[in-house]
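Morning run. Coffee first, then this:
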Amino acid sequence: MTDSTLPIPGAEEIDAIAVVSALGPDDLEEIDNILDDLRTRGEEIPQWEFCDGYMAALICSRRPIAPAEYLPMLLGDGVELDVADGEALPLLPAFADAAQQARFIELWMRRWNEVVTQLDDDVKTLDDDRTYQPEAMDMRGAVASLTDEQRAEMGDDQEIPSFGQVWALGFMFAVENWPEDWAAPRDKEAAKWLDDALQSIVALTEDDTGKPEVCMYDENGPPSTSQARVEAFGEAIWAVYDLRQLWKSMGPRVETVRKAPEPGRNDPCHCGSGKKYKKCHGA
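And here it is:
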């Protein structure tokens, strides 16, 4: 494929796309490899965990946000692409070629549809196989599970994020970049619902300073995550469900239409005739 543009659906069409199989380990590795390659052309390209949190926020957003708007914010300079409805998406500079962009978008859309299905299912417990599970990595557990030699090769100057922290930062990145779409509704109960849910996710953006008790990387691995963090992660998952349902129930924000004031009857007419309004267009 050599064309520099790609026809992909807008966000409002995503719900109508047939759900494809969930991403497997090979697919996730392929996404990581693509992002690694993109990072050779742009240092600001985030990790997949960040992308997954960003995606969850887009899915929960009050207004459907189109790929021409959200992809440049994630993988480009943040400037919305000038693409009319139904037109193809231009090749973003971070991608090596159109084929690489098409493959990334294909994998992205598969994950998107998986998340939409999970969030719209009526689940009661986190143990349900249908429950939404963020692509959160216990990096501290992974590092602790390495041999001494492997850890020595990494060096000690790397700051290791807490479990779920990068995912939450990706979610809040989307919230902060579309503040009007996340503004509190007038209804006080709905506004509190929104605030409580967002606070549950914001809590994950903070460092886990509790006593390590469990390993989320390997159940038999050395403790790396506090029990409080595990509970906060569960609360954040339910918060995503709450946000999805809140905005679905309220619908897109209705813009207030402001009518320009009419001139007074004795004011000059706006048409420039030189006559008073009452003797011209106001007659």
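Residues 1-19, 256-260 have pLDDT under 50 and may be disordered. Good start to the day.
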